[in-house]
C-alpha cells in the first residue's frame, strides 16, 4: 500500500522522533526539506494558493480575498472532523462514525440550545460530552472487546444515526442559535469571526498533536503498539481518549454546521465522511498509522474545498465536474508523492549529509 | 501463519475435538453458522421463508452485494482498501440501462462490457497503488469519484431500462428448482476455490500477511497487488450487472449505498483488515447475513427508526463471536 522509504525508527525511540532530527547536524533548511511531512504540508498549501490565484482565469469574481474567505469557511467542518480523524488514523485506526456524530451534534445543538444564548453555556459542553461518549464507546469496543476499528466505528455510525432518527422522529425540531450564526455572519474588520478562529484552532490542534506528550505517544502507538506498550505507554487509555476526541470533534462540527446553516438535518454529516478521511490522507498522514501532522490535514481540507469550489463554478454538466474533481485529487496526490521529494533531495539536499 | 492457518488441517489429528477447534478458528464457517441460525429463527417466525420463491428472492437481493464484497475481499486480503466499488457498480448499472440491446446477444455484450469496465478501473487502481505507490484508500477514492462522474455522463438522472433478458431470465428459476442467481453464486465460489489454489491465490495471502517476507520468498508483490485490484474490478462489474438485473433500471448513484455495506460484509465474513486472513466465501455469506438481518428485524416488527440500532449491535456481536471462537481455537492448538 505505502512504500516505507526509510526503516521506521527503532520502536523505543519513536516518541522522541523529533530528537533524532535535532541530533542531525545538517543545516536547519536542509533538515526541513528532508522531512517529508513538512514538504507535503507546504505542497498542499502551495497547490491551494496557486489554484485560488489561477481560478481568476475562470471568473473575475474569483481568486480574491472574498473567495479565500468562502473557502476557509466551507473547509472549517472538514478541518474540525479531520483533527479527530487524523488522530485516529495516526493510531492506525479509522473513524467511520464521524458522519453520525456530526449529525448527532447538530441535532442535539439544534434541540437543546435553540435560540437561547444562555443555553450555550451548558448546551455546548453537553453536546460535546454526548458525542465524546459515542467516541468513548468506540474506544471501549476497540480496546476491550478487540473489535476492528473499521467495523466498530461503522456499526457505531449506524447505531448513532438510528438514535438520531428515533430521537427526532424523522425531522429535527428546534431553533437556530443567533450566537452560533453570528460566528459566520458577524464581521470584524470585514472578516467573519470564524475566519479568525480557524488559524487558532489549527495551531492548537497542531501543537496538541506534535508537541505534547499525549500527541507524541500517539505516534509511538501508531508506529508499533507492542513497542509502545513495552515502553510503558498506557495504550488502552490513550486509544479510548483518542476516539473520544474524534467523537467530540464530530459534535463540534455539528454545532458549527447549525451556526452556518441555521438548522439541522439528519443527513448533515453524511457528505463529510469521505472528505474527512481524504483531507487527512491528502495531507500526508499514512493510513497505516504513525506518520502525519495536523497542519497537513488542514491544508488537505482547504485544498479539497478549493478544488470543489472552483470546479463548482465551471459551467459544465455535473458529470464532467465530478470527473475533473476526482482527476485533480489524483493529480494532486501524484504531485505530492514522496518520489518527487527524493528527486529534490538528490539534487539539492542530501549532498553534504552523505 | 495465515497461509498455514487457512490451509492447515490436512496433517492435523483427526479427533473430533481437533476438527471442532479447527472449524471454530475458521471465520468462514462461523459466519455460515451465524447465517444458518439467523435463518432458522427467521423460518420459525415466517413459515414460508424456506419456500423456493422466498429463497430465490433472498438470493436475488443478496447477490449484487455478495459479488461486490467478494471483489473487495481480494484487495482487503492484500491489506488494501478499495473504495472504487461504488463507482464501478454505478457505471455498470447505467451502461446496462442505456447501452445494451435485448436478447441473449445483448446480455452477453453487456456482460463483456461490464467486465471490461471493471478490468480497466481495477488496472488503474492497481497501477496507482502497486506501481506508483499511492495509498490505496487515496487512489481508489480518486477513481471512485471519477467513475461516479462518468456514470453521471452516461445517464444524468435515474431512468433507462435494463434489457428484459437480463432483468427477467437472470432473476428466474431453472427447471422449477434452481434459482439462476444461486448458480451464479455457486460459480463465483467455485472459481474462487480454484483461484485460491493457484500461485496468485497463495501470493495474495502471503503479501497480505507480510509483504517483506513475501518479497523475500520470491513473490512478485507489485504484480500480485495489481492483479488483486483487477480481480476486484471484475467482481464489481459483475455486481453492477446483477444489480441491474435486480432493479431493471438505471441510476447513476446505484453503487453509493453499497460502499460501506461491502466493508461490513467483508468484516463479518471473517476477513481481517490487517490482511492475509479470511476469504471470499465468508464475505459473500456475510453479505447475505447483512440483508437477512434487515428482513428479520422487519418481520420482528422493529420500528424502522430503530432497525439501525439492532443492525449495528448485531454486526459487532457477529465480529465478536468470530474473534472469540478463533481465540478458543488458537488456545486449544497452542
Brief rundown of the structure:
The complex is a heterodimer of chains A (354) and B (334). With 354 residues, chain A is mainly α. Chain A has helices at 17-23, 28-34, 36-54, 65-90, 98-113, 119-143, 149-168, 178-185, 193-211, 213-223, 225-230, 235-261, 273-282, 294-313, 318-335, 338-349; strands at 187-188, 191-192.
Q: What attributes characterize this protein structure?
A:
heterodimer, A: 354 residues, mainly alpha, ABC transporter involved in vitamin B12 uptake, BtuC, two-stranded antiparallel ribbon, disordered C terminus, B: mainly alpha, 15 helices
What would you say this structure looks like, in words?
The complex is a heterodimer of chains A (354) and B (334). Chain A is mainly alpha-helical and 354 residues long. Chain A has one domain: Orthogonal Bundle (ABC transporter involved in vitamin B12 uptake, BtuC). Chain A contains 16 helices and 2 strands. In chain A, strand 1 and strand 2 form a beta hairpin. In chain A, helix 3 packs parallel to helix 14, helix 5 packs across helix 12 and helix 6 packs antiparallel against helix 7. Chain B has 334 residues and is mainly alpha-helical. In chain B, strands 1-2 form a two-stranded antiparallel ribbon. The longest helix of chain B has 30 residues. At the A-B interface, helix 7, helix 13 and helix 15 of A face helix 6, helix 7, helix 13 and helix 15 of B.
Amino acid at each position: 500500500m505505502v512504500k516505507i522509504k526509510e526503516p521506521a525508527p527503532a520502536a523505543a525511540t519513536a516518541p522522541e522522533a523529533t530528537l533524532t532530527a535535532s541530533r542531525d547536524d545538517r543545516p536547519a533548511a536542509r533538515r526541513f526539506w528532508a522531512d517529508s511531512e513538512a514538504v507535503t504540508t507546504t505542497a498542499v498549501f502551495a497547490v491551494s494558493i496557486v489554484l485560488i490565484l489561477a481560478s481568476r482565469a475562470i471568473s473575475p469574481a474569483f481568486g480574491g480575498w472574498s473567495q479565500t474567505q468562502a473557502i476557509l469557511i466551507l473547509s472549517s467542518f472538514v478541518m474540525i472532523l479531520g483533527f479527530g480523524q487524523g488522530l485516529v488514523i495516526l493510531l492506525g485506526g479509522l473513524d467511520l462514525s464521524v458522519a453520525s456524530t456530526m449529525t448527532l451534534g447538530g441535532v442535539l445543538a439544534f434541540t437543546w440550545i435553540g435560540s437561547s444564548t444562555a443555553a450555550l453555556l451548558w448546551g455546548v459542553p453537553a453536546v460535546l460530552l454526548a458525542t465524546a461518549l459515542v467516541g468513548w464507546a468506540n474506544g471501549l469496543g476497540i480496546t476491550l472487546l478487540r473489535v476492528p476499528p473499521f467495523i466498530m466505528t461503522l456499526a457505531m455510525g449506524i447505531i448513532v444515526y438510528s438514535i438520531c432518527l428515533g430521537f427526532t422522529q424523522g425531522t429535527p425540531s428546534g431553533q437556530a442559535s443567533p450566537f452560533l450564526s453570528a460566528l459566520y455572519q458577524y464581521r470584524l474588520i470585514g472578516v467573519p469571526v470564524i475566519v479568525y478562529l480557524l488559524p487558532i484552532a489549527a495551531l492548537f490542534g497542531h501543537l496538541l498533536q506534535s508537541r505534547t506528550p499525549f500527541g507524541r505517544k500517539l505516534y509511538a502507538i501508531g508506529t508499533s503498539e507492542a513497542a509502545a506498550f513495552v515502553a510503558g505507554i498506557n495504550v488502552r487509555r490513550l486509544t479510548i481518549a483518542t476516539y473520544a476526541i474524534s467523537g467530540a470533534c464530530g459534535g463540534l462540527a455539528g454545532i458549527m454546521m447549525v451556526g452556518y446553516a441555521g438548522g439541522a438535518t439528519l443527513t448533515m454529516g453524511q457528505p463529510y465522511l469521505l472528505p474527512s478521511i481524504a483531507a487527512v490522507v491528502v495531507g500526508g498522514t499514512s493510513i497505516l498509522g504513525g506518520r502525519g501532522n495536523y497542519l497537513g490535514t488542514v491544508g488537505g481540507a482547504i485544498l479539497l474545498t478549493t478544488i470543489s469550489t472552483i470546479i463548482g463554478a465551471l459551467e459544465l454538466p455535473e458529470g464532467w465536474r465530478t470527473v475533473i474533481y476526482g482527476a485533480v485529487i489524483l493529480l494532486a496526490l501524484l504531485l505530492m508523492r514522496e518520489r518527487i521529494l527524493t528527486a529534490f533531495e538528490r539534487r539539492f539536499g542530501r549532498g553534504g549529509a552523505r | 501463519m495465515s497461509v498455514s492457518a487457512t490451509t492447515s488441517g490436512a496433517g492435523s489429528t483427526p479427533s473430533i475435538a481437533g476438527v471442532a477447534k479447527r472449524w471454530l478458528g475458521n471465520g468462514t464457517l462461523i459466519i455460515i453458522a451465524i447465517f444458518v441460525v439467523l435463518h432458522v429463527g427467521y423460518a420459525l417466525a415466517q413459515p414460508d421463508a424456506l419456500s423456493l420463491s422466498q429463497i430465490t428472492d433472498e438470493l436475488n437481493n443478496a447477490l449484487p452485494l455478495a459479488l461486490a464484497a467478494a471483489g473487495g475481499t481480494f484487495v482487503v486480503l492484500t491489506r488494501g482498501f478499495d473504495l472504487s466499488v461504488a463507482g464501478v457498480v454505478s457505471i455498470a448499472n447505467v451502461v446496462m440501462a442505456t447501452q445494451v440491446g435485448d436478447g441473449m446477444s445483448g446480455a452477453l455484450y453487456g456482460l463483456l462490457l461490464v467486465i471490461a469496465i471493471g478490468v480497466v478501473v481495477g488496472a488503474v487502481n492497481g497501477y496507482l497503488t502497486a506501481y506508483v505507490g499511492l495509498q490505496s484508500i487515496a487512489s481508489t477514492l480518486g477513481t471512485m469519484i471519477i467513475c461516479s462522474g462518468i456514470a453521471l455522463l452516461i445517464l444524468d438522472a435515474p431512468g433507462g431500462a435494463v434489457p428484459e433478458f437480463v432483468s427477467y431470465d437472470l432473476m428466474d428459476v431453472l427447471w422449477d428448482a434452481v434459482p439462476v442467481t444461486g448458480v451464479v453464486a455457486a460459480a463465483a465460489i467455485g472459481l474462487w476455490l480454484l483461484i485460491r489454489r493457484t500461485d496468485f491465490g497463495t501470493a495474495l495471502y502471503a503479501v497480505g500477511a507480510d509483504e517483506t517476507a513475501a518479497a523475500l520468498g520470491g513473490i512478485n508483490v507489485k504484480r500480485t497487488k495489481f492483479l488483486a485490484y483487477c480481480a476486484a474490478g471484475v467482481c464489481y462489474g459483475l455486481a453492477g450487472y446483477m444489480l441491474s438485473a435486480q432493479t431493471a433500471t438505471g441510476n447513476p448513484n446505484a453503487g453509493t449505498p453499497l460502499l460501506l455495506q461491502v466493508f461490513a460484509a467483508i468484516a463479518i465474513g471473517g476477513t481481517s483488515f490487517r490482511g492475509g486472513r479470511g476469504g471470499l466465501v465468508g464475505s459473500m455469506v456475510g453479505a447475505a447475513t447483512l440483508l437477512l438481518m434487515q428482513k428479520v428485524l422487519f418481520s420482528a416488527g422493529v420500528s424502522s427508526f430503530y432497525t439501525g440500532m439492532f443492525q449495528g449491535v448485531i454486526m459487532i456481536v457477529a465480529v465478536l463471536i468470530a474473534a472469540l471462537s478463533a481465540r478458543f481455537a488458537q488456545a486449544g492448538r497452542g
